[in-house]
Amino acid sequence: MESLYLLIPLSIVVVFIALWVFFTASDGGQFDDLVGPGLRVLQDDDTTPEAASKPSAGERD
C-alpha cells in the first residue's frame, strides 16, 4: 500500500511530461506534413547537380 503513495504521483508526473513533449513537438511543426516524406521516397529523381551541369554526348558541338 505504501508503494502507491510513490507510484501515483510519479505516474501523474510522467503523464504531464509526455503531454509537454507532445505539445512542444506539435508547436514546433513536427506533425505538419505527415504525407510528404512518404511520397518523396517514391519519386524517381536520379539526376545529380553534377550530371545536370555536364552536357550529354549528343549535345556537344
TrEMBL record:
Pfam families: FixS. Keywords: Membrane, Transmembrane, Transmembrane helix. The keyword Glycoprotein does not apply. It comes from the Bacteria. Residues 41-61 are annotated as: Disordered. The chain crosses the membrane at residues 6-23. The keyword Electron transport does not apply. InterPro entries: Cyt_oxidase_maturation_cbb3 (IPR004714). PANTHER family: FIXS PROTEIN. This is Cytochrome oxidase maturation protein, cbb3-type.
